[in-house]
Amino acid sequence: MEWSVYLVIALGVFCMHIIFGWGSSDKKQEEHTEPPQLDLSQVEEEISQAEEEMSQEQELLQVEQETRDTMLQILRDIGCQPVVDEDGDVAVYYQGAYFDIIFYGRYANVWQVAWDVIETDGFKCAWLYEAVNAANHDYGPTVVVDVRDDGKALVSSLCPVMLHPANPENAVYVRTVFEMFFKKKEGVRAHFAKIYMRENGEGTSGSKGCPPFILMPKSQKEIPS
Known about the structure:
Blueprint: H1 2-20, H2 26-31, H3 40-77, E1 83-84, E2 90-94, E3 97-104, E4 107-119, H4 125-136, E5 142-147, E6 152-162, H5 170-200
Antiparallel strand pairs: 1-2, 2-3, 3-4, 4-6, 5-6
Helix pairs in contact: 4-5
């Protein structure tokens, strides 16, 4: 008889559990919690800001493409054969010298990369830095020196130009910029020669004329990667 009494009690507890939901977990209650309300005004503001940024970026890309097209036409007009790579940068030879052109908006950064490569072992780099700094005070492109861990110093020049397709003097302007690169190289050579003669004495053998490094176009030299 006792086991039957226990069975009836157990069945009664089970029924009460089902009817009144005794022992329901907090997790089950949480499932019925209302989701948090979204701030629609904030969402709309973020969407509007994202759309504005995309619009500005698209406008910048359009201007950049217009500048690239303008430069390409100028280069062809002055007798060059430019090549556009997959990134939209332009490579071109002018008077035997190699140039890279990178675009941003209305600006085109014209680079003559590694127009000289110098072995730094036994070379007075301090003299080169002084010559470059003196040359950079002159009008024209900026000269930069990149000293590598492999014992080589790469001498390059950079000149940013601003182009607008409506400017009738674009071709004259770009041609003048290219010519200034050659003048700036000769400026570095001249300043270095002065420093060399100052340090070695004007009458020292080999102190006159060109300094002990040769300026050559990129196409004629092996440029380190």
